[in-house]
Amino acid sequence: MKSPEVKTGTGGSSSKDRYLIVALHQLMEEYGWRGIEKHFASSKHTIIYVKPDSFLDKVELRANVLGNHMDVDFLGFTPEKGLLDKVFDFNVRVVRKSFEISKYVSDEMKITSEQNLRNTVIIVLKQLEEVAEKKEQ
């Protein structure tokens, strides 16, 4: 994975969280997920992904930054089968991961612990896809 090309602010923690979210985005794309919608704010970031050969309709990544921590909810959306899915969100599975930003982004704005980040994304995507596959059967 190449270093994210993000230039924001003075290099403080808000810049680091953007580097981390871009690194997660690049990993998602490496695994075949195409970002179709992106929203970046000062402490909340949202990206929506689709993948044609997946059992999931989409995956939504919602990141909330609190100090040096970024909580990321990975939401996997399966196809809605009926009214109950629409009313109660039975078609949504959430996996939350918490990242200590300084563990993954250095003061020089380089991604560190890349293998841990990569493993986290792989495991989350497998969990979401397994649930979707079981619902399909």
Describe the fold and architecture:
The protein is of the alpha+beta class. It is built from four helices and five strands. The protein has helices at 13-30, 83-88, 101-104, 114-136, and strands at 34-40, 44-50, 58-66, 69-77, 92-100. It has a five-stranded antiparallel beta sheet with strand order 1-2-3-4-5. The longest helix has 23 residues, at 114-136. The termini are far apart.
- Main sheet? 5 strands, antiparallel
Question: By helix and strand content, what is the structural category?
Answer: alpha+beta
Q: N-to-C SSE series?
A: HEEEEHEHH
- Could you tell me the mean pLDDT? 85
| Terminal residue distance | 35 Å
Unreliable spans are 3-12
How large is the count of helical segments?
A: 4
* Order of adjacent strands in the largest pleated sheet: 1-2-3-4-5
Task: Give the amount of beta strand, in percent.
Answer: 25-35%
As a percent range, the share of helical residues equals 25-40%
What is the CA-based Rg, rounded?
15 Å
How many beta-strand runs? 5
Overall geometry comes to elongated
